[in-house]
Design brief:
alpha/beta, 8 helices, ubiquitin-like modifier activating enzyme activity, single chain, Rossmann fold, Molybdopterin or thiamine biosynthesis adenylyltransferase, ThiF/MoeB/HesA, eight-stranded mixed sheet, 8 strands, 228 residues
């Protein structure tokens, strides 16, 4: 298919069939989530669930791909669906306009091949990790703040977030609020998260499993910390 012609060589025709049959859940449709959803749709992941109960506001305009001056106050997940239906109508995208929580997480996440963390708070990230483990689904985590970001891939029972965010830290503090969020950081971290998703689905390449990629764009530093 001509739409995916530029995928070829990097991704084979047989691998494209795998992507077309895959189902990925993206939790969060803001800074990270907008780019993640767009990249997944453009590369040809066949089914995407976009979960977010929030609406766009004016402060989102500096970095959130799906926000624009005429959709302020509108649902982020529903606007994501509208955008992807324009970008790639071959994709089945489901909009879930709710906040994920302990009572609905298992129901919302089940049936997917991969879960992608595009959240902005630690407590919900750890809930996603727990739910993903119960459902035996791998997840890709990304976080951003200022010039900094991190990415890791977490398979069931890896519990990587427990190392990154020990229980004794304040789970409600948000690094984004302290460091801000320029436009370029979420785009970069989202791209790396999507690369991890594609490698998991295609079962090739070196995953960021058991390790975390830390990025400092201010000093051009890319470091990987491995967990023993």
């Amino acid at each position: 298919m001509k739409r995916y012609a530029r995928n070829m060589e990097a991704i084979t025709a047989d691998e494209m069939k795998i992507l077309e049959k895959s189902k990925v859940c993206v939790v969060g449709c803001g800074g990270l989530g907008g780019y993640i959803i767009e990249l997944l749709a453009r590369i040809g992941v066949g089914s995407i669930t976009a979960i977010d109960g929030d609406v766009f506001d004016e402060t989102n305009l500096n970095r959130q791909l799906f926000s624009h001056s005429k959709n302020i106050g509108k649902s982020k997940s529903e606007e994501a669906k509208k955008r992807i239906e324009l970008v790639n109508p071959l994709i089945n995208i489901e909009s879930v306009n709710v906040m994920i929580n302990e009572s609905n997480s298992l129901f919302l996440l089940k049936g997917h091949d991969i879960i992608v963390d595009a959240l902005d708070n630690i407590k919900t990230r750890k809930l996603i990790q727990s739910s993903a483990a119960k459902l035996n689904i791998p997840m890709v985590h990304g976080a951003i703040g200022g010039f900094y970001g991190q990415v890791t891939t977490i398979f069931p029972n890896d519990n990587t977030l427990d190392y990154l965010y020990p229980n004794d830290i304040k789970l409600d503090r948000g690094i984004e609020k302290r460091l801000g969020n320029p436009s370029f950081t979420p785009a970069l971290i989202a791209s790396i998260e999507v690369a991890e998703v594609i490698k998991i689905l295609l079962r090739r390449g070196d995953l960021l499993r058991g390790k975390v990629l830390f990025i400092d764009l201010l000093e051009n530093s890319f470091d990987i910390l491995e967990f023993e």
